[in-house]
What we know:
Layout: E1 4-9, E2 13-19, E3 34-40, H1 42-54, E4 58-67, H2 70-81, E5 85-91, E6 97-103, E7 109-114, H3 123-133, E8 137-142, H4 148-160, E9 165-167, H5 177-180, E10 185-186, H6 190-197, H7 204-217, E11 221-225, E12 231-233, E13 238-240, H8 253-266, H9 271-285
Parallel strand pairs: 1-4, 1-8, 2-6, 4-5, 8-9, 9-10, 10-11
Antiparallel strand pairs: 2-3, 6-7, 11-12, 12-13
Amino acid sequence: MKKKLIIVLGSTNTDMVISGKKIPAPGETVSGGTFLMNPGGKGANQAVAVARLGGKNAKCVFIAKVGNDLFGRDTALRMKADGIDARLIVDAKEPSGTALILVDKKGQNCISVALGANGTLSPEDAAPALEECLPQASALLMQLETPMETVLSAAQAAKAVGVPVVLNPAPAVKLPAVLYKCLEWITPNESEAELLTGMKVTDAASAAKAAAVLQKRGVKNILITLGAKGCWCSVTQRIHPGYKVKAVDCVAAGDTFNGAFVVALAEGMSCEEAIAFAQQAAAISVTRPGAQSSVPYRIEVR
């Protein structure tokens, strides 16, 4: 099989994680947790997922912006270790992105992100790598921790040359109308789907209604992740149940799912096969702590 080139454009952060019994309420201090510092950022997490889960069948190009600092240099080294072709633009003024993450004993988390250099990734920054790589690409995967104008510009460039665009709309923000028409797939969770459509998503029927709104705006296919319930897909018009596992840490579970899903689609798997592959990968990731450290390799997924 010829290697599939998948481009990921997005953020890279250093995650500072405290795992404890509970997530503090406003004004509350909770002691007794454990501290870890891990590489993260939704874009970088998804790039690592593409590289590891694509195995020998995929090549990943990652487009991002970092600061001229230790975290930026560490990102370059880690991307290289995973075999990722990292096209990192260095910002001379802004630091690399960071995230503070709190995780409770059930694996649930809350996250606060300082975008840093991620917030200055411009269409002009991304253009050289996109112009070089899009003609050979099987897919472009993006999220929303980088400027919207850059996401839109990249999506339009990909659509112009017939490359499928997959958008994981996280963190949730309103999208420009023109962006929807560029998307082959959009993969919101329940809260993101509600913000985009104004419809609360709790089951298959409400997911179908939200998806109809997105399709009317121009998106071709919709996949709404529903946490422990699984995910709903507009192609199959049903919920695909997830795997029951004991969650340790849910950080990067969605990123693992998205990276795996795009890999599977690029390989020509059916929608149902791609969902099953992505669910297996995500289920493994939540049994491990950390963001990129929790992403499994292809050999681990059945």
